[in-house]
Design a protein that fits this description.
It is a single chain. The chain has 672 residues and is α/β, with parallel strands linked by helices. It is 29% helix and 19% strand. It is built from 17 helices and 28 strands. Strand 21 and strand 22 form a beta hairpin. Helix 5 runs parallel beside helix 8, helix 6 crosses helix 8 and helix 14 crosses helix 17. The longest helix has 29 residues. The structure holds alpha-D-galactopyranose. Alpha-D-galactopyranose (GLA) binds next to loops.
């Protein structure tokens, strides 16, 4: 697949929804797109009701004119199948294809994404409209890519879902005996004696079965992927050379295992809407996408010109659109796309902004959109080489799903927070990280971080063992290796799957209340630490861990026994005293083969985490690609990076020859 063949460079554009506007606006749109340097737009994402106003009655005339206009303007089209929002007639004709929530409520038409991917009527209607589009536009010169559906994520609990779930379970478990065993149905009289007795995890009296919930999430991801594959097959058949993708939505609620999906798309596409800390969140999202893509192209398909902070939609600060887009591109995105081209004047998302805002082209936003459009083509050479990563962080959707189960030892556990912290620490210290699955080939990474990897299969544990034996440095944090793939605890002491590798055995978990911080000190000098107010103790203690003031651990703690490992820090201080943790190991280190495996049984502050890893802060975002170097100053102060001065909000994309770079500046501590 020749991609991105249409432009040869980086894609720039966004969702274009001409159906929201009278035709006279379309010509202005194309003229403005040309002014802004737009070369790709996603068309028709939610246009099913316009394309098929009545069952089987198609109206393609308007879309013909839109595609022709765009093509005349030199703009390529990422043509969407509109299946994320069936028209009103569809739900009336097929009420059984509307979503049913866990509590049995059947949703009504009125928003979007109200469908059941397991309902035969919906599946058929999707294939018919995808086929009609492909037959109509297979040879249209504007067609550059297919955009199937939009942000898969609707979970349905109806009887169609139940039937499909049973079929999936039979395939996964083979026999009812195996399923009963995997789900520990001996607990609370849940033993199944016939497949028909099994349902999706619908609303129930008290805690649901965590293994059932986990399998249901796996099933939903697979079932939606099947829906994607069906459409892809239709499109592939008619347009074998046009790449097919779907845009991944990010978030803990998302019932999609993106790693599996990444194998099925020709281009990994993500939508990204940072909220609290846009630069760090952007780097995280981009590194995730690169990890899923694992060598194939990936693209930032949607971002906004505003930041959704939760309660507020805040206009991006001057230059922020460019900086965040640049961060995505530096980290591997084959362009920067937006939701959406023109801000809507009505409809549910009228305040979500657009490249052409409500104020029109005479606006700061559109000016910045034009500046970004002019910048991107200049970056093509800098993007030729792969992104260089100095570390890997292991991530797994299934571990996340298992840690979202109710009934865990703390209701405050947040897998993604643990992964994000690991990423943030590396990011703030100039280390680019690949976010990869525990089964990935880790041999190229000098450092691998394993945050809260609750579910670990035997095979993946073996992969980690091999990595360390061959000389790698592995840093495993609390709540890892605890359960098997059915979310059952591995017995004999935590972290079951990794005990031998880490040379420890954890006897008990001690989750901490928010106001408690345990002191961590060097095992041989527990009394030297407690000088928090001593002005003679220097603040900067990057060279040692724990530093001379000691460190603190919050949120979580564990009763760790050494079984071959040595303690790097022990729990001390008033909160530990009188508990089984007093004087016990908090952070350990174990040699295995020619490598080292560390275990961190509590949550460290970002600074302490960085000190443990021996990192020095990087004042700006840094990404290296072959001979090229991207530096982005997201802050409000001027920064100097190895010979370049970056003003507040400034950036530089240079070759190493232009810079006096110390390439060892952000290398993690070597343990052996
Ligand atoms: C996602 C969706 C778009 C739109 C935007 C809003 O990216 O794909 O349709 O809802 O969010 O920002």
């Amino acid at each position: 697949m020749d991609w991105p063949g249409r432009t040869g460079g980086l894609y720039y554009g966004g969702d274009y929804n001409p159906e929201q506007w009278p035709e006279e606006v379309w010509e202005e749109d194309v003229a403005l797109m040309r002014r802004a340097g737009v070369n790709l737009v996603s068309v028709g994402v939610f246009s099913w009701a316009r394309l098929e106003p009545l069952p089987g009655v198609h109206d393609f005339g308007w879309l013909d004119r839109v595609l022709d206009l765009l093509h005349e303007g030199g703009i390529a089209v990422n043509l969407a199948t509109p299946t994320a929002s069936p028209p009103p007639w569809f739900g009336l004709a097929h009420p059984d294809a509307l979503t049913v929530t866990a509590d049995g409520t059947r949703l009504s038409h009125g928003s979007r994404d109200t469908y059941c991917v397991h309902a035969p009527a919906y599946r058929d209607a999707c294939l018919r409209i995808a086929d009609a589009l492909a037959e109509r536009y297979f040879d249209h010169p504007a067609l550059a890519m297919w955009h199937v559906h939009n942000e898969y994520g609707t979970v349905c609990h109806c009887d169609h879902a139940a039937d499909a779930f049973r079929v999936w379970l039979r395939e996964r478990h083979g026999t009812l005996k195996a399923l009963n065993d995997a789900w520990t149905t001996s607990f609370w009289s849940q033993h199944y004696s016939a497949w028909e007795q099994i349902t999706p995890p619908r609303a129930t009296q008290y805690l649901p079965n965590p293994s059932q919930v986990l399998d249901f999430r796996r099933f939903v991801s697979d079932a939606m992927l099947d829906h994607f594959r069906d459409q892809k097959a239709v499109l592939r058949d008619i347009t074998p050379d046009i790449p097919v993708t779907t845009n991944f939505v990010l978030g803990d609620w998302v019932p999609v295992n993106h790693r599996h999906w990444a194998d099925e798309v020709d281009v990994v596409a993500i939508d990204h809407y940072p909220s609290a800390d846009p630069p760090a969140e952007t780097a995280f999202a981009a590194d995730l996408a690169r990890g899923w893509a694992s060598g194939k192209p990936w693209l930032l398909m949607e971002q906004a010109v505003v930041t959704y902070t939760g309660p507020r939609m805040v206009a991006k600060r001057p230059g922020e659109i460019t900086r965040l887009s640049l961060s995505h591109v530096a980290r591997g995105s084959r362009g920067a796309m937006f939701f959406q081209w023109r801000a809507s004047r009505g409809g549910a998302e009228l305040w979500h902004g657009g490249m052409v805002p409500h104020a029109g082209p005479d606006s700061r936003i559109f000016e910045e959109i034009c500046e970004l459009g002019a910048l991107l083509p200049t970056l093509v050479d800098a993007c030729a080489a792969p992104v260089e990563a100095g570390a890997a962080i292991l991530v797994d959707s299934e571990a996340n799903w298992a840690l979202q189960a109710p009934g865990l030892p703390s209701s405050e556990i947040a897998y993604t927070d643990a992964v994000r912290q690991a990423h943030r620490v590396l990011y703030r210290h100039g280390v680019t990280a690949d976010l990869v699955h525990p089964s990935a080939d880790l041999s190229a990474y000098p450092l691998v971080l394993v945050p809260a990897l609750y579910l670990v299969s035997d095979a993946d544990a073996g992969n980690l063992r091999r990595y360390v034996a061959d000389g790698g440095t592995l840093v495993v944090s609390y709540l890892s290796g605890v359960a098997d793939e059915h979310a059952r605890v591995r017995l004999g002491g935590y972290p079951g799957a990794l005990r031998d590798l880490l040379g420890i055995r954890v006897e008990e978990f001690h989750p901490l209340p928010p106001d408690v911080a345990l002191t961590l000190s060097a095992p041989d000098a527990p009394d030297a630490l407690n000088a928090p107010d001593d002005p003679d103790v220097p603040d900067d203690h990057t060279a040692t861990f724990p530093g001379p003031r000691g460190e603190t651990g919050t949120f979580w703690s564990e009763h760790v026994h050494l079984e071959g490992a040595e303690a790097l820090a022990v729990y001390t201080g008033p909160h530990a005293s009188g508990t089984p943790l007093d004087g016990q190991p908090a952070i350990t280190r174990h040699s295995h083969g020619s490598g080292t495996a560390l275990y961190v049984s509590t949550r460290l502050s970002d600074d302490a985490y960085a000190r443990l890893l021996g990192l020095t802060p990087a004042p700006v975002e840094l990404v290296r690609r072959g001979d090229w170097f991207f530096a982005v100053n997201h802050g409000d102060e001027e920064q100097k990076v190895e010979g370049v001065t970056l003003p507040p909000g400034g950036f530089a994309v240079r070759t190493h020859d232009d810079l006096d770079l110390d390439r060892s500046a952000s290398r993690p501590r070597e343990w052996h």
